[in-house]
Amino acid sequence: MIAHEDQPALVLHALGETPRIERVSISPPGRGEVLVRIMASGVCHTDIGYVQYARTTPVVLGHEGAGVVAALGEGVSHVAIGDHVAINWQAKCGVCRNCVSGRRQFCEGVLGTSEPRVHLDGKPLAVMLNAGTFCPYAVVPASGAVPIRKDMPFAVAALLGCAVATGVGAAMFSAKVQAGDDVVIIGCGGVGLNTLQGARLANARVIVAVDRDPEKLALAARLGATHVVDSAKEPVFDAVMQATDGRGADHVFELVGRTDLMVEGLGLLARGGRLTLVGAAGRQDEMTFKPRGFMSKQQTICGCIYGDVQPERDLPLLADWYADGRLELDALHTDTIELKDLPAMFEPGYRPHGIRTVVSLEGLA
Questions:
Q1: Is the domain of 295 the same as that of 315?
Q2: Is residue 170 part of a domain?
Q3: Band of pLDDT at residue 2, cut at 50, 70 and 90
């Protein structure tokens, strides 16, 4: 196998800088690895935030992607060249204490490639979350390429690996919303709207969607919210208490990453309720609350990464749910751009429009 030379990629060179398009080379996959021709990649809030908190630089950004298997490393048999795949950025190690105990969602040794596969001017580059999907090619661990149905558009399939998995999984697999539960969703972006859909699929009784954007709230109602609350115009607490007959919510999901909203969410819980933190706060942010009432009401606060999904099982399942109409994803893909236009989204002061922007890479490479 030969390397793919002179490929465009979005590279962050230093924290706080605007990433830029560079020409990189991609090495062939090693043993237990897969080369994926990336066709589409969603732009996630995590990608934007990575500019401020990436653990290492320089790094190729992007992690929410879908494409076609282009080459196989030795020992890979679960996919074939030409298969359509969604990128799983949490390839489980299978050998840590949590993995062998049946708690793979808490894997302590998430896999990357055995050595760097992307180079710039002959020097190795890191890839974001073991993926680096803002590039026409990505080399991932074998289980990082999850086969999906071929009739799903790449622009929608790209969302499976983060927005859809994290959101639907937060409700169904992490919080385990039960039929008849009352649920509050704080933040109706791509992940929040999928959390809402997960609550709907779990047959929640009440689903209150909270946001400040009327268009997002209108879409939330279309996707299954029983109540919508414009937090810029009405008190959220009063609206939630009215919707839940005064008892509060069994589940509150915070999807913005703001500590004030986390504290507000805690105040919306019923006795025995659970606050699930999905939005990524800053690494130095602190959340302050009064523990006595929290303890007396026997409540829970839990963090959620990747929706506690089992990617090999759940990404194809979510694709099937899209195909049979149980999941509405087309409405979440609100804009398509080319890779060359992507750096503008990282400029200070840029405000994204719609729900999810997808970068099309089909015409590259």
A1: no
A2: no
A3: low
Q: Where are the beta strands (DSSP E) in the chain?
A: 4-12, 20-26, 33-42, 59-60, 64-72, 84-87, 118-120, 123-127, 137-141, 145-147, 182-186, 206-211, 227-230, 249-254, 269-277, 300-303, 333-338, 356-360
- Same domain for 328 and 250: no
Is residue 251 in a domain? yes
Per-residue pLDDT reduced to its tens digit, 53-82: 999 999 999 999 999 999 999 999 999 999
Nearest residue to 42 (alpha-carbon basis) of 203, 162, 220, 204: 162
Q: Total structural domains in the chain?
A: 2
Considering the domain architecture, whether residues 40 and 109 belong to the same structural domain is answered as: yes
Q: Is the domain of 88 the same as that of 213?
A: no
Q: Which residues contact 312 (CB under 8 A, 6 or more apart)?
A: 88, 143, 146
pLDDT digits (tens, 9 = 90+) for 309-318: 999 999 999 9
Report in angstroms the alpha-carbon separations of 318 from 1, 254, 326: 33, 22, 9
Structural domain harbouring 269: 176-303
Q: pLDDT by residue (tens digit) across 20-64?
A: 999 999 999 999 999 999 999 999 999 999 999 999 999 999 999
Q: Residue 296 belongs to a domain with what CATH number? A: 3.40.50.720
Q: How far is CA 245 from CA 158, 177, 183, 204, 248, in A?
A: 39, 19, 13, 15, 8
The pTM assigned to this predicted structure is: 0.96
